[in-house]
């Protein structure tokens, strides 16, 4: 792992980028429900899309903690932009790890240069949290894989170039496939109208006799379950980082507001009840940060409790994000209910962190199972 100073220097660089190139567009992205193209362009400046990938394929070999710091700082100003980057990483990850040399050359080089948007396709209409209830099927015919099925609530849908798709290859086996947006048989459902992260396009991805060449199979056609299980242990801290960033951004905005606002002839920040609330929220954010960073260490070192800690971090950070964002709206008084102030957007954005990548209820079950096992 890097030295502490290196992480702090990286944090400062991402924060400068986020505040100068991403934050000015955050409200407009939310209001117009448009893809954050400015953020995508900003990612290129620090080669952020390359961050998690191995140097052997042109990446930066950034560890999980570096990735979390990156997402935390971006989410602090724009949750949609942090989600965009995170899902690009998630979509490209299986390709980088298990793709054939031909596929890695075809996909990863332009991706590393920041010119590729990607998605990961897991959730289905009938499955929800039950990933392994997937009904999308892949059959091998005449040297190609033929995919049929429908994936639900896919982030970056309609904007992505590549899709990593989980599909059933047998009664109890799964494979993961790289599908390009131009492949025949790939189409999209309607764009969903969402409560938060509204600049991130979400839609069904539909496969109807969608044929992909054999080299687009990632790794072993029967090991997809293991690939995705490993991936979720890695991505859950990233959701925690996004939630933490939203919480920090909301508290920062609330502190700024109560220091500027005057009521009954004095600064709102001087009222004891306001100070008590600020103290509680700041403490919970810091507790979230420490748990999150501990989970990063466990995932990076492949510790036995990594999966449990990742679920704890995702659960705790997302709950804190929802609490802090809601309280920050309250600290703004009537102004917090207006779209003129970012806390209104942050409260809406925070809610999804308790739902996607495994609901809070699923995380509790994972943690409880670990605690109760012999």
From TrEMBL:
<dbReference type="InterPro" id="IPR037069">
    <property type="entry name" value="AcylCoA_DH/ox_N_sf"/>
</dbReference>
<dbReference type="Pfam" id="PF02771">
    <property type="entry name" value="Acyl-CoA_dh_N"/>
</dbReference>
<dbReference type="InterPro" id="IPR046373">
    <property type="entry name" value="Acyl-CoA_Oxase/DH_mid-dom_sf"/>
</dbReference>
<dbReference type="Pfam" id="PF02770">
    <property type="entry name" value="Acyl-CoA_dh_M"/>
</dbReference>
<dbReference type="InterPro" id="IPR009100">
    <property type="entry name" value="AcylCoA_DH/oxidase_NM_dom_sf"/>
</dbReference>
<comment type="similarity">
    <text>Belongs to the acyl-CoA dehydrogenase family.</text>
</comment>
<dbReference type="InterPro" id="IPR006089">
    <property type="entry name" value="Acyl-CoA_DH_CS"/>
</dbReference>
<dbReference type="Pfam" id="PF00441">
    <property type="entry name" value="Acyl-CoA_dh_1"/>
</dbReference>
<keyword id="KW-0274">FAD</keyword>
<keyword id="KW-0285">Flavoprotein</keyword>
<dbReference type="InterPro" id="IPR036250">
    <property type="entry name" value="AcylCo_DH-like_C"/>
</dbReference>
<feature type="domain" description="Acyl-CoA oxidase/dehydrogenase middle">
    <location>
        <begin position="120"/>
        <end position="210"/>
    </location>
</feature>
<feature type="domain" description="Acyl-CoA dehydrogenase/oxidase C-terminal">
    <location>
        <begin position="223"/>
        <end position="372"/>
    </location>
</feature>
<dbReference type="GO" id="GO:0050660">
    <property type="term" value="F:flavin adenine dinucleotide binding"/>
</dbReference>
<protein>
    <recommendedName>
        <fullName>3-sulfinopropanoyl-CoA desulfinase</fullName>
        <ecNumber>3.13.1.4</ecNumber>
    </recommendedName>
</protein>
<dbReference type="InterPro" id="IPR006091">
    <property type="entry name" value="Acyl-CoA_Oxase/DH_mid-dom"/>
</dbReference>
<dbReference type="InterPro" id="IPR013786">
    <property type="entry name" value="AcylCoA_DH/ox_N"/>
</dbReference>
<keyword id="KW-0560">Oxidoreductase</keyword>
<feature type="domain" description="Acyl-CoA dehydrogenase/oxidase N-terminal">
    <location>
        <begin position="6"/>
        <end position="114"/>
    </location>
</feature>
<dbReference type="InterPro" id="IPR009075">
    <property type="entry name" value="AcylCo_DH/oxidase_C"/>
</dbReference>
<dbReference type="GO" id="GO:0003995">
    <property type="term" value="F:acyl-CoA dehydrogenase activity"/>
</dbReference>
């Amino acid at each position: 792992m890097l030295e502490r100073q290196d992480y702090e220097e990286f944090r400062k660089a991402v924060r400068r980028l986020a505040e100068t190139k991403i934050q000015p567009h955050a409200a407009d992205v939310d209001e117009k429900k448009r893809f954050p193209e400015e953020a995508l362009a900003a990612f290129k400046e620090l080669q952020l899309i390359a961050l998690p990938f191995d140097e052997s394929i042109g990446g930066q070999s950034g560890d999980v903690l570096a990735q979390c710091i990156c997402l935390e700082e971006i989410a602090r100003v724009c949750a949609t932009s942090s989600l965009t980057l995170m899902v690009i990483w998630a979509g490209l990850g299986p390709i980088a790890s298990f793709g054939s040399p031909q596929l890695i050359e075809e996909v990863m080089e332009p991706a590393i240069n920041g010119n590729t948007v990607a998605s990961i396709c897991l959730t289905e209409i009938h499955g929800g949290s039950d990933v392994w209830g997937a009904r999308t099927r892949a059959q091998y015919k005449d040297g190609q894989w033929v995919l049929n099925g429908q994936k639900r609530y896919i982030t970056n849908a309609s904007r992505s170039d590549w899709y990593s798709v989980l599909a059933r290859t047998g009664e109890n086996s799964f494979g993961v496939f790289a599908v390009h947006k131009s492949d025949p048989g790939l189409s999209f459902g309607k764009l969903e109208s969402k409560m938060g992260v509204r600049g991130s396009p979400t839609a069904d991805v539909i496969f109807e006799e969608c044929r992909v060449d054999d080299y687009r199979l990632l790794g072993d056609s029967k090991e997809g379950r293991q690939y995705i299980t490993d991936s979720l242990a890695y991505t859950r801290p990233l959701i925690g980082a996004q939630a933490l960033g939203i919480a920090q951004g909301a508290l920062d905005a609330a502190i700024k507001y109560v220091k500027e606002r005057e009521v009954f002839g004095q600064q709102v920040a001087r009222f004891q009840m306001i100070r008590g609330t600020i103290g509680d929220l700041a403490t919970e954010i810091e507790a979230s940060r420490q748990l999150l960073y501990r989970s990063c260490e466990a995932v990076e070192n492949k510790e036995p409790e990594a999966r449990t800690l990742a679920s704890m971090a995702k659960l705790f950070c997302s709950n804190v994000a929802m609490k802090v964002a809601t309280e920050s709206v309250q600290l703004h008084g009537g102004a917090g209910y207006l779209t003129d102030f970012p806390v209104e957007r942050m409260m809406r954005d925070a809610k999804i962190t308790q739902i996607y990548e495994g609901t809070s209820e699923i995380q509790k079950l994972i943690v409880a199972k670990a605690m109760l096992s012999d």
